[in-house]
Structures are given as structure tokens and as C-alpha cells.
Predict the 3D structure of the following.
Amino acid sequence: MKGINARTEDPHSTRTDWKNLRRLFPYLWEFRGRIMLALLCLMVAKAATVGVPVLLKHIVDSLDTEKIALQLPIVLLLGYGALRLSTGLFNELRDVLFARARFHAIRRLSSEVLWHLHQLSLRFHLDRRTGSVTRDLERGTQSLSSLSNYFVFTVIPTAFEILLVTGILFTSYQPQFTLITLGTIIVYVVFTIIFTNWRMHYRHLANKLDSAAHSQAVDSLLNYETVKYFNNEKYEVERYADTLNQWEQASVKSSFTMSLLNFGQATIIALGVTGIMIFAAQGVVAGDMTIGDLVLVNALMLQLFIPMNMLGIVYRQITYSLADMDLLAKLLEETPEVKDETNAKTLAITQGAIRFNEVSFSYTPERKILDKVNLEILPGQKVAVVGPSGSGKSTIARLLFRFYDVTEGSVYIDEQNIMHCTQDSLRQRISMVPQDTMLFNETISFNVQYGNPQASEQQLLEALSLVNLDALIAKLPDGLDTVVGERGLKLSGGEIQRVAIARAILKKPNIIVFDEATSSLDTNTEVAVMNAIRKVTKNVTSLMIAHRLSTIIDADKIYVLEFGRIVEQGSHTQLLASDGLYSQLWALQQEDAQQERENE
């Protein structure tokens, strides 16, 4: 099985980290007061931390005298304890103050990204892989929390501590102490950045493969029945394992190079501390420094390089988070293909008349789906569009909903060009019953009321009664609270379609579109669903995209599509009399129906 090319694919070659940070900064800036107060607590905590070894020096020096026999340095010891307590107190205050800003930013960003994804056009959602998108969304929103944590809890505190330590060394001791400290820090930072950037390819690749594996797993579970139908459990697991194998190799290389990085950092720190201690010991021997000074310098170095060691890890994590944020930023950069005009009007439907005027459409330039289609539906009419597979029937429904904009021509509702109207006002007045109805893994009540969340219980019951689902619900132990399962798998095909019809009519639309709503049903179920359709289409303009011609014989008008063009139009009786394509399709379906009856 073909895997992902580890050598050629680099999903982060066009990263723009500063741009991404600027875009996400406002999510935190909303709580700038809390953040500033948290930073103040941070500085106080760090000042107390650095004050501990300074006070320890004075305690050691005071104990290294004959006065110790007469009096303990009780004030210094109490001050030492107070500084230790202050460090913990102000660190905790910093955490408490910053928590609100961090979690609010995650909530706001997550909500806005989901809103943005829902605003993107149908083409994006047909091309996307749900597993990868959800993984990128999860890691991207967490990256905001991680970056804010790293900067507030590690980067800024460490930078402030470096300033305090180098200030003490510069003002109290010989210049070589400051030079060795700064030199060690510079070498450490440069080494960390260069080495981390070199090894980031393995992390990027591991992330990509992790998303790919997650997407494959989600796809295989969503298509559980298909996997079972074709006995492909082993194939799915092998495909998943193949991607995980590539992920394993990339992750092992990432781990190995991280160990090399850690060892290099430890070597730099060891050399720096050793150099400092040599000069300090020489100062004590020469009488230029006290034992307390030696203790202070040693404590300052250890105190400084412990967070410096963490800084190396944090830099890697920041780089990882920036990589995750980049994936989220690319999602936010996606723009809707279908956009409202600047001065788009609210669609006002009074009658529900529909007109396609010379409409042409292509998904890609190479293949024209519709070619100069002229179609008209009068208010309250039931009009059907039929034709062979691939003739462009479902595309008509998508254009009516403005999932795509027409390539040429115009679509009118009550003589209003829908391209000049807002998408929201358009879709508020039209309902759709698709061929493959997708139900939420929620209750029957939730799925029906999804058509109009503000509908009353009485309106809900009326919609269910209209599609003859009230009897079924009465038999169910949990009634309306029955959970329908993933994609509605606990219901039969006919029950799912009737739930979809009830949901559509609860919206109280002016226009209803049925996109091959009965094509996957057996004959008996089809009759029940068609009875429901006849009830709900009274006094409503309806467009029926149909494959089974038996379901649209009562239509006021039938348009026959072939290769994207309307080749016939008329009533069922008129089209049969014309002995054209419709008549041929009718004859073929009648023969199929006869064979099915004979085989029963």
C-alpha cells in the first residue's frame, strides 16, 4: 500500500509564524489587565527567588564567625523562609490570574474556528478529510494555550531572572563571572535554535502522519458497514498500520535527535558552571571572596541554568506549537467560494416561484455539468427533474441553495436574482430532503427539531403526525427521547427519510427540495414516504430530483435532463406520448419492476 512520502512532503515549508502570532494575539489581549497583573506577580516571585541565594550568602558569612557562639542570625533565617514562601505565593497568584485569560482565549478561538468552517463552501467540505481537520483544530487551539503558558511561565520569567543574576554578578564580582555567564547563555541559545530547527522536519512529518492515521481510523469507523460488506477489516487495519509505521519511524528519529540535543545542552551548561566555580574557588583561596560568595555564585548558577535547561525544552515545544498553529492558521485562511455581495438584499418570498434562466455550470473548466438550462416552477407547483445518472439533476438543487454560484445565467426566486440576496435569507426559506439523510447521534426529538430549534412541542408533534411517525414513536420505550444512533443507524431507511421530511417541514419553508429522497428505499417503504411527501407538498412549491419515475407521475411538470441539457418537458402523460428519452427510461424501469415482482 502506498504511504506518505517522507522525503518530499513538507507541510510547513510556507509557515508564517509572526503573522500567525499577530492573528492570535487579540484572543489573549482581551484580558490584558489580568495578564499585566500576572506578569507583576511573576517579577515579584523571581525577585524573591534570586533573593534566596543572596540571603543565603549573608547567612553563611554570619555563621562563619566567632559571634555564632553568642547569637544565631535569626532575622536572616526568618527572611530566608519568607522569601521561599513569597516565591510560591506569587507563582500561584500568577497562575490563578492567567488561567481566566488562557481558557477564555481557547474557548473563543475554538468557537470562531468552528464558525469559520461552517461558513466555508461545499467544495471545501467535499475535498476535506474530517479526521485531519478535527485533529488540526484540536492541536491548533491547544497551541494557543501552550504558547501563552510557555511565554508567561517560562520565557519571560527566565529572561527576567537572567537580568537579575547578571546584574548581581556584574555589580558585585569580577567581570569574568558575567562574561562566562552571558557567553554560556549565548552559546546555549544559538546551539538550541540551530539544532532544533535542523531536527524539526521529523516532528512536522510525525504530525502529518499522526493526522493521516487519525483520519484513516475515523473514515473506516464512519464507513463501518462498507468495511463489513467487503470483508475489508484486515485491509483497513493494514492501511492504518502502514501509516502508523511511517509515524513510528519519524517519531523515533525525532526522539533520537532530541536526545542528542539534550546532551549538547547539558555539555554547554556543565562547561559554564565549571568555569564559574574555578574562578570562584580561586577568589576564595586568594581572599577576594568569602565562603558565602562561593555559595552565592554556585546557587545563582544552578538557579539560572535549571530554567535554562527547561528553556531548551520550551523552545522545542514552542516550535511544535507554532507548527500546530500554522495548520490552524491555514484553516482560517480558507475563504468561502460563495460570498454575499457587499449590499446583498434579504430575499423576500411571497409566492415561491423559481426560474432558471440560461443557467450553465461547471465544477471544473474541463467538464460542463449544466448547459443553458431554462426551468420554471410556478408558485405551489410540484415540478420534477429526471434523467440518467450524471446528467446534472442534483447540481440544480445545489445551485438553488447557492452551495455554488452559476457559471453563466441566473437563478430567480420570485424574480429576485439569488446572487444578489444573502445566503442566510435564501436558506431560511428553503428546505431540503436529501437522498442520503444524515441524522445526529441524538434523540428523534432533537433531529426533527433541528429544522426549527424554536418550534414548540405541539408543532413538533404535528410534523411527526404529518409523516406518520407518531405511531412508531408511541411504540418506542423512550418515545421522542429515543437515540437514533450514528447517522441514524437504529432506524430503518424509511423512518430516517420520514424524520428528514418532518425536519424539513418544521422549518415552515416556502420551497421544499427532494433530492432523490426515495431512491434507496424498497417499494413498500417508498409508498409510505411518498404519501408523506404528498401531504407536505400541498400549497408549497416543491422541486423533486428523481431517479424512480414512478414517484413523480403526479408532478405538474417534468423536465428531462441529458448531458446537462433539458431535452424534454411536460407532464407524465405528455412525455410518454412523445416517445422520447423519458419514455425509454419509463419502459426500462417498468421492466426492472416486473422482474423484481417475478423474482419475489
